[in-house]
Amino acid sequence: MNNLDQPYPISPEAKAFYQENNFIKLKQVLSPEEVAHFNEVISAEVQRKNTQDKPMEERDTYSKAFLQIFNLWTESEEVKKLVLSKRLAQIAADLMGCEQVRIYHDQALFKEAGGGITPWHADQYYWPIDSDNTITAWIPLQATPLEMGPLEFSAGSQQIVFGRDLEIGDDSELKIKQNLRINNFEHVIEAFDLGEVSFHSGWVFHRAGANQTDQMRKVMTVIYMDATAKLKNPENTNQINDWNTWCPGAKIGEVIDTELNPVAG
């Protein structure tokens, strides 16, 4: 896994693209061997911790979207190597233009065969973070064709305030889709090659299609924030919950420096 200690060059063009669009897809961030290794490790953790036992037809839209397992880095030394790796942290810091990044949390997002859409949303609605310098690495654990439901982006939509206050669900899918169409942002839907990883900001709108294959769509995600980011006064109950869950002990107006939020890299 030595590759994860090596830098991944981010060109000035890539930085400019990210700053304008608030997302970017980068090829060969992980080698095929690394993808295979972390597929095996993370799949085993998800299988061990998954408690979803309802049939697909009995679930709501959110529960149909994916199996969601959090903060595996705290339970698996192998997962920790990926989540806290120099490579991912350096890419995140370079794209955001900051010195260092901290972990907010990680989450495995496994979209089952036949799993439904992930509705339009902006992640940072959930986060009590006082900085817009937040970024999520979306790491597919296999090549991800269109029919498997790869992540989709509304390029540049971080400029839009409408929809930021919507929880992910049927309502956000409908209302945000209508508003983005009116504002004519480019809707980017592309497959992911093996080893390709995307990075997107906390305020850019994104979604994913249904998994129309007979295979699990396996993805690991890591949310990073500027290492100097502070806890803000929560604006909704989800942010209160996130404060208690992902940065316990952090104080409003102070840097989010808890044992669950180490500097990465």
From TrEMBL:
<dbReference type="Pfam" id="PF05721">
    <property type="entry name" value="PhyH"/>
</dbReference>
<dbReference type="InterPro" id="IPR008775">
    <property type="entry name" value="Phytyl_CoA_dOase-like"/>
</dbReference>
<protein>
    <submittedName>
        <fullName>Ectoine hydroxylase-related dioxygenase, phytanoyl-CoA dioxygenase (PhyH) family</fullName>
    </submittedName>
</protein>
<dbReference type="GO" id="GO:0051213">
    <property type="term" value="F:dioxygenase activity"/>
</dbReference>
<keyword id="KW-0223">Dioxygenase</keyword>
<keyword id="KW-0560">Oxidoreductase</keyword>
